[in-house]
Amino acid sequence: MAAGVPSEQRMANQIASNLRHQPADRAAETLAAHIRRFWDPRMRARLFALVDAGADGLDPVVVEGARLLRKDQEERVG
To answer: What Pfam family is a match for this entry (predicted)?
Structure first.
């Protein structure tokens, strides 16, 4: 990845790359679960901001995983 890529984008894309052996929907669920468990709320917020801004270079699995994660967070809040 090029210099200047936000760390959340780089890390999320690496996770997606490691999940490439799974079908895309399963990979997105696994990515969301990993981020839910291991990323702090500030990191998740920065990832959501990148997805919302349509950041160049985001893996489609990351975009779908972020959507699933956001949906799960909204459901937990109420």
So the answer is: FdsD
